[in-house]
C-alpha cells in the first residue's frame, strides 16, 4: 500500500467514534509547497482555485475539471500534490475545506468530478452531493472517509456515487477509481459529440427534409392525418389540420421554358432553377406565405392560408404580382394554377391535382393567369404515359404554342410505338384524337373548329394507314385547334363578363358573392376574378360596390325615400356601414349628398332671392 505524507498510516476501525488521528510519515525529500498550494493566512475556511494546467493524457476527449472538499488540510494537500491528475486528463480547479464553498463554486463553474469527504463541519459530503446532483446530474461523485459505517455507505449508494474510498487513501486504489470515472466521462463526451454532430447534420438537412415531406404530400398514400401532422410539426412546417388552405402551382410556359433552358448545360440549368425558386419564395414571403417548395422540374408550389374573407381577390393579387415579378426579373412567362380551398393535410394531394388542372383546363387570354373551369373533372384512370401526353398536349394547345404541340405529340407517339400490341397502340391513338375535346366544355358546336363533327373527324382518322399517317393528321388537327382557340378566347371572355354584369345589374340589392356569380357562369371563383379584372380593370367586389352606389345616388335624388331605406334597397344591411362607404367613395354622407341634390334642383330665382 502506497500512502502520501499527511494521511493516516493505517485504516481506521469500523467504529464511528474511533476516528484515527493524522500521523505524518517521514519523506525522503521534502518538497517546498508552491505558493498556489499554501492556505490563506487568517482564514480557517480556506478555498483555493488552481490555475496550473495539467497536460491531458494521450487520446483524451477533453480536459475535465475536478474539485476537492475535505476538512483535513493534510488530505487536501496530499490529493493535490501527490496524485498525478494530469495523467488522467483532469485538472484540479478548486480545493475547499467544507461543502458550502464547494457547492457555491459548482454553481458558478463547470465541474465534472467531485472528490469529497463524507463528514465536514458545516455541510457534509452527502448533502453536498445531493444538492449538486439535483442541478447537475452529470457530475461524478467520489466519497472519501475515515469511517466504514453502513449508514454512510447506504447514503452514498443513494447518491449514485462512483466509489467510496476509505482513509488512509491508497494511491493505486484512487488511480483505479479516477481511471473508471474518466472512462465514464469520455464515453459520455463521445456520445454527446455524436449527438451534437447528428443534430448539426439534421439541422443542415432540414430544408431538404421539409421539401421532401411536402412533395410526399402531393402523392396519394395511406398516411393518417395524425401521422402527417406529427411529421410536419417535427420538421417545423407551419401547417395544421384545421385551417383552410389553397395550393398554388407555378410552371414555366413551355415556349419560355424551352427557349430559356433548353440549350443550357445541366449545371447552368440547376443554377437557373435555384434562382427562380428563390425569387418565387421571396415574392410570396412579402405576402406572409412561407410554405413554398419545388416540385417537379420547372414547377414551384405554395400552400396559402385562405381563412379570411374575399380570399379569391387576394389570391389573384398574389398571382398577378408573382407573375409580373418573374417576367420582370427573369424574363420568363409563367402559368399559375390555384386550387379550391381545402382543409386537412390529407387533402393536399387532391388540391395539388386541382391546381394542376387549373393550368391544363382553362382558356388562356394572351399570357395571363390560367385558372380551372369548374365543370370539368378528369377520371384519373390513365397510366403514366397517357397522363404525360394529356398534360403536355393540353398545356401546349392552351398556350397557343404550335411548336410545343408538335413536340408533345412526337413524344407521345414515340411512347405509343413502344407499346406491345397493335390494339393497344390504336386505342391510345384514338385517345389522343379525342383528347382536345376536354378543352371545349360548354362550347357551342359551331365554335369547336376541327372538332365540330366528331363522327367525320373519327372517320377520317380511321382511314389513315399506320401510325405515321395518323400522327400527321393529329399534328394538323392540333395545330388548327390551337389557332382556332386563340381566336375564340376573347369572344368567350366577353360573353362571360357580359353575363356577370347583367346579373349584378339585376340583383345588386341581393347578397351577391363571387362564388354565386361563378356558379352562374360555370367557372371557379378564382378564374372568374381573373377574367373580370382583366376585362374591366376592377375586382368583382369593386364593381358591385360601384353599381350599388350609383343606384343609391338615384334613390337619394328621390326625396320620398328615407335615407335608411336607400341602404336596404341597394343591398346593405347596416345603415352606418353604408354611410361610411358612401362617404369614402363620394366624399359626402348620404344626407349631405341629398341636400346638395335638392339645392341644385331649386329654381335660380329662389336661390337669388335667398342670397339677397
Describe the structure.
The chain is an alpha/beta fold. It has three domains: 35-190, Response regulator (Rossmann fold), CATH 3.40.50; 218-487, 2-Layer Sandwich (Alpha-Beta Plaits); 494-611, Homeodomain-like (Arc Repressor Mutant, subunit A, Orthogonal Bundle). Helices cover 54% and strands 9% of the residues. The chain has 22 helices and eleven strands. The protein has helices at 73-81, 99-108, 125-135, 150-158, 171-217, 225-234, 254-261, 266-285, 311-330, 348-360, 384-399, 402-417, 422-434, 454-462, 466-507, 514-520, 525-536, 540-556, 563-569, 575-586, 590-601, 604-611, and strands at 47-49, 64-69, 90-96, 113-117, 140-145, 163-166, 244-252, 292-294, 299-305, 334-338, 342-343. The strands form two sheets. A six-stranded mixed sheet has the order 1-3-2-4-5-6, sandwiched between helices. Strands 7, 8, 9, 10 and 11 form a five-stranded antiparallel sheet that branches. Helix 3 links the parallel strand 4 (113-117) and strand 5 (140-145). Helix 11 crosses helix 15 and helix 12 packs across helix 15. The radius of gyration is 42 Å and the shape is elongated. Residues 5-56 and 362-383 have low confidence and may be disordered.
Amino acid at each position: 500500500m502506497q500512502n502520501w505524507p499527511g494521511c493516516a498510516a493505517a485504516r481506521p476501525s469500523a467504529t464511528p467514534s474511533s476516528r484515527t488521528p493524522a500521523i505524518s510519515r517521514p519523506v525522503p525529500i521534502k518538497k517546498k509547497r508552491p505558493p498556489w498550494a499554501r492556505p490563506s493566512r487568517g482564514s480557517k475556511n480556506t478555498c483555493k482555485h488552481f490555475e496550473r494546467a495539467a497536460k491531458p493524457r494521450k487520446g483524451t476527449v477533453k480536459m475535465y475539471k475536478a474539485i476537492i472538499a475535505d476538512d483535513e488540510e493534510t488530505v487536501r494537500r496530499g490529493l493535490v500534490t501527490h496524485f498525478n491528475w494530469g495523467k488522467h486528463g483532469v485538472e484540479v480547479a478548486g480545493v475547499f475545506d467544507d461543502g458550502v464553498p464547494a457547492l457555491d463554486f459548482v454553481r458558478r463553474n463547470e465541474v465534472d468530478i467531485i472528490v469529497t469527504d463524507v463528514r465536514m463541519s458545516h455541510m457534509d459530503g452527502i448533502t453536498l452531493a445531493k444538492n449538486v446532483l439535483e442541478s447537475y446530474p452529470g457530475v461524478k461523485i467520489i466519497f472519501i472517509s475515515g469511517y466504514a459505517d453502513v449508514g454512510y455507505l447506504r447514503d452514498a449508494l443513494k447518491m449514485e456515487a462512483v466509489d467510496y474510498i476509505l482513509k488512509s487513501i491508497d494511491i493505486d486504489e484512487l488511480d483505479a477509481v479516477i481511471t473508471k470515472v474518466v472512462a465514464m466521462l469520455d464515453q459520455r463526451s463521445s456520445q454527446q459529440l455524436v449527438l451534437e454532430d447528428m443534430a448539426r447534420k439534421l439541422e443542415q438537412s432540414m430544408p431538404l427534409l421539409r421539401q421532401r415531406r411536402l412533395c410526399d404530400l402531393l402523392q396519394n398514400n395511406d398516411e393518417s392525418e395524425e401521422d402527417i401532422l406529427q411529421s410536419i410539426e417535427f420538421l417545423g412546417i407551419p401547417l395544421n389540420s384545421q385551417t383552410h388552405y389553397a395550393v398554388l402551382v407555378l410552371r414555366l410556359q413551355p415556349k419560355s421554358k424551352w427557349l430559356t433552358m433548353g440549350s443550357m448545360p445541366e449545371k447552368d440549368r440547376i443554377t437557373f432553377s435555384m434562382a427562380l425558386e428563390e425569387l418565387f419564395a421571396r415574392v410570396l414571403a412579402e405576402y406572409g406565405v412561407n410554405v413554398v417548395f419545388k416540385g417537379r422540374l420547372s414547377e414551384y408550389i405554395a400552400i396559402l392560408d385562405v381563412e379570411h374573407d374575399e380570399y379569391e381577390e387576394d389570391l389573384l393579387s398574389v398571382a398577378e404580382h408573382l407573375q409580373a415579378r418573374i417576367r420582370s426579373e427573369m424574363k420568363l412567362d409563367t402559368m399559375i394554377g390555384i386550387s379550391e380551398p381545402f382543409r386537412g393535410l390529407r387533402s393536399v394531394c387532391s388540391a395539388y391535382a386541382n391546381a394542376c388542372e387549373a393550368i391544363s383546363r382553362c382558356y388562356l387570354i394572351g399570357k395571363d393567369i390560367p385558372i380551372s373551369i369548374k365543370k370539368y373533372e378528369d377520371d384519373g384512370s390513365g397510366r403514366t404515359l397517357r397522363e404525360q401526353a394529356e398534360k403536355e398536349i393540353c398545356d401546349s394547345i392552351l398556350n397557343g404554342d404550335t411548336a410545343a404541340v408538335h413536340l408533345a405529340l412526337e413524344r407521345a407517339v414515340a411512347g405509343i410505338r413502344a407499346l406491345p400490341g397493335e390494339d393497344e397502340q390504336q386505342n391510345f391513338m384514338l385517345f389522343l384524337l379525342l383528347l382536345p375535346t376536354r378543352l371545349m366544355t360548354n362550347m357551342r358546336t359551331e365554335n369547336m373548329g376541327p372538332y365540330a363533327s366528331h363522327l367525320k373527324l373519327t372517320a377520317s382518322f380511321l382511314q389513315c394507314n399506320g401510325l405515321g399517317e395518323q400522327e400527321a393528321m393529329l399534328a394538323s388537327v392540333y395545330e388548327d385547334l390551337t389557332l382556332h382557340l386563340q381566336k375564340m378566347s376573347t369572344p368567350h371572355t366577353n360573353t362571360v363578363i357580359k353575363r356577370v354584369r347583367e346579373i349584378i345589374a339585376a340583383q345588386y340589392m341581393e347578397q351577391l358573392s363571387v362564388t354565386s356569380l361563378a356558379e352562374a357562369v360555370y367557372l371557379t371563383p378564382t378564374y372568374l376574378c381573373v377574367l373580370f379584372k382583366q376585362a374591366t380593370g376592377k375586382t368583382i367586389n369593386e364593381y358591385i360596390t360601384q353599381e350599388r352606389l350609383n343606384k343609391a345616388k338615384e334613390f337619394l335624388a328621390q326625396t320620398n325615400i328615407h335615407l335608411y331605406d336607400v341602404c336596404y334597397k341597394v343591398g346593405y344591411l347596416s345603415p352606418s356601414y353604408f354611410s361610411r362607404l358612401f362617404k369614402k367613395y363620394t366624399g359626402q354622407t348620404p344626407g349631405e349628398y341629398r341636400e346638395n341634390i335638392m339645392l341644385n334642383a331649386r329654381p335660380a330665382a329662389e336661390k337669388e332671392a335667398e342670397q339677397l
